[in-house]
Structures are given as C-alpha cells and as structure tokens.
Write a structure and sequence with these properties.
Layout (H helix, E strand, L loop, with lengths): L7 H24 L24 H13 L3 E10 L5 E8 L3 E8 L7 E6 L3 E6 L9 E6 H4 L3 H5 L5 H6 L11 E6 L4 E10 L2 E10 L5 E7 L5 E13 L4 E11 L7 E12 L19 E3 L9 E2 L3 E2 L26
Parallel strand pairs: 6-14
Antiparallel strand pairs: 1-2, 1-13, 2-3, 3-4, 4-5, 5-6, 7-8, 8-9, 9-10, 10-11, 11-12, 12-13, 15-16
Length: about 325
C-alpha cells in the first residue's frame, strides 16, 4: 500500500503561525501586566477564625484583633454620592479618624473634582466643580462643634463610620454585648452600645460565620431611630498583615428620610500599613476665592453662600432600603 505524502510545508506553516500568535499574545499580555489563566496566582483565602458556636466575647475579640492589625489604608477609589456624577481618585485612611479622598469627575482628565478629608480636629468637603445648580464650595467643621449642631442632627455623619464600613470596627472594652444571634444566611448578629458626641448609640454588626468579616452594620440612636447602614462586600485577604478588606462599601446615612444620603466606595489596589509618613496629607486646605461655610457654627445649616450654593446639597430620597427590625434591648455580658 502506497503511503500518502506528508505535507511538511503545511505543518511548518501551521506551527509557525501558532508560535507567532503565541509570541504576540505573550508580549501583549506581559506588557499590560496580565497573565494567561493557568499562570494567574490564586488569591489567598481568608482563614477560619471563629468556631461553630462562638460567644459574643469570641466574636468581639476576633474583630478587635483584626482591626488592630490595620493602621493605615490606601487605594484607588471610585466614589458615587446619590445622583451626583461619580469621581475617581485616591483614598487614604489612617486610624483613628484621618481620611482623605482626592478625586476627579470621571471623563474630566485633569479637570475639577472633590476633596473630602478628616483629621484629628476637623473634617471638610471641597467641591471644585460647577455642577448644575451649584458652583464650587467649601464646607468644614470641628468634630466636637459639629456634634452639637442642627446639621449633625439632620445628617448624623461621623468620619469613624467610613473606617467601620471598611471593616475596621472598634468595640470598646467595656461594651455591653448582646448575642450572638444566628441568622439564616450563615452570619451572626452582635449588638452593643457605645457613647458618641451626639449621645449613646446602639451598634448592630452582621458578622460572617467562620471568617468573622463584618458584612453589615447598623447604627441606632437612643430613641431606636436608624441613623445609618453600611454594607461591605467583595473582600480581599491581605497577608501581611493578615486581614480581610472589602473592595466595595455602601454607606447610607439617614435612611428612608428626606435627608437620606448614600455613598458608594469601589476600591482597587488596596495597600495596608504602607504609609509614606507625609503628614501634610492630613492638613485641611484653605481654598482662596471659594465660598466657605463652617458647619460647626450655630445656624450654619440654614446659611446660604454666594452664587446660590447651599451649605450642603439636599440629598435625593430613594426607595428599596432594607429596613432592619432591631429595637435595642440592653441585656447580655460585659466584654472585658
């Protein structure tokens, strides 16, 4: 039987084409920092930190241990606030209440943006753009003074809540704990009271079983009024320092009221405890020629600034917020 001639030329051409395609793909993927699927390293898995039946003290101690490992956080961030245009930039946080978000509106390369910050004494919001119905404005306040104003009563925002939403929850050593209460979604519910400049608050934490990651939080005032709600998701385990950090945070202040305000943080490139030591980042700016309002001054909430720019923009109410049915009942052990 006569054998069929082999087309070595066709095989060589096919092999050359595949080799050339592989080389091009390798150069492109390598130059963009990508890797082929079989070369992508797996993200480290969060360890198991809680037993099957933890006590309230076990959960509180585990959360405190994880939080205390984080001194500073830095990441790229996309920030959305209700119906305002989204901004993208840099987020820096340093415990206990230092925060700086410097970002620009998406699609405006090199253009105006926002500067949101908090240091040990004060906080500020600097809107650098001319948005529809509003011009550039700068609002600020001393933390302690703001806690006593009407503005704080209407929108009881506290800088520490952003740190809490990042998973860096601080539970006081003398907190009175309730729980844990098992939930159907394989989480634990833990409750405790905490003193704040505006009075006694009740905190409700929804904690993931085993990993102890705080996935939801609720803040109530002394009259059981829901002040804020935070939801954290898309966690990334960073080792070192051995902590899980969320890459998506949704914080809603004054939910289901006319003053409702929702902030959404989408983070990437998280870095923990890698601060450069530049303390200037925490200095409050003093923009020239921009209307400024001190929200810590009595009556500042009702004050208007030039160009029809109000002290703080009125947020737009939305629907669909998941109402939490908890009403504070102060029983339970004292966490020492």
């Amino acid at each position: 039987m006569k054998s069929q001639p082999q087309d070595h030329h066709g095989e060589r051409a096919q092999w050359s084409t595949c080799w050339l395609a592989g080389l091009v793909i390798g150069i492109v993927l390598g130059s963009t920092g990508c890797r082929l699927p079989f070369m992508t390293p797996r993200a480290p898995k969060a360890p198991e930190l809680l037993s099957a039946q933890p006590t309230a003290e076990d959960i509180a101690m585990t959360i405190a241990t994880q939080s205390n490992r984080v001194r500073q956080v830095q990441s790229q961030v996309r920030l959305s606030v209700q119906d305002m245009p989204a901004v993208s930039g840099q987020l820096r946080f340093e415990r206990p209440r230092r925060l700086r978000i410097q970002a620009k509106f998406l699609g405006m390369v090199g253009g105006p943006g926002v500067d949101i910050g908090s240091n040990d004494e004060a906080f500020w919001i600097w809107m650098k753009a001319n948005l529809p119905g509003a011009g550039p404005a700068f609002v600020y306040a001393n933390h302690d003074q703001f806690a006593q104003t009407l503005a704080q009563q209407r929108i009881p925002m506290q800088p520490e809540w952003i740190a809490d939403a990042l998973g860096l929850v601080t539970i006081p050593a003398d907190a009175i704990l309730e729980g844990p209460f098992a939930r159907r979604d394989r989480t634990w519910e833990l409750r405790y009271r905490v003193d704040s400049p505006s009075g006694t608050l009740t905190r409700v934490l929804i904690v993931e079983a085993v990993t102890a990651r705080v996935v939801e939080q609720f803040w109530y005032d002394s009259n059981s009024r829901l002040l804020a709600h935070a939801r954290s998701s898309d966690f990334e385990y960073l080792d070192p320092p051995g902590v899980s950090m969320p890459r998506r945070v949704v914080l809603t202040v004054s939910p289901q009221t006319e003053d409702q305000m929702t902030l959404t943080l989408q983070m990437s490139g998280l870095m923990v405890n890698q601060a450069t030591g530049n303390d200037q980042i925490w200095v409050m700016p003093r923009p020239e020629g921009v209307p400024a309002v001190d929200l810590g001054r009595p009556g500042a909430w009702m004050t208007s600034v030039p160009n029809d720019v109000s002290a703080m923009p009125a947020p737009v109410s939305t629907t669909g917020y998941p109402q939490h049915g908890y009403r504070p009942q102060y029983r339970g052990a004292t966490y020492r």
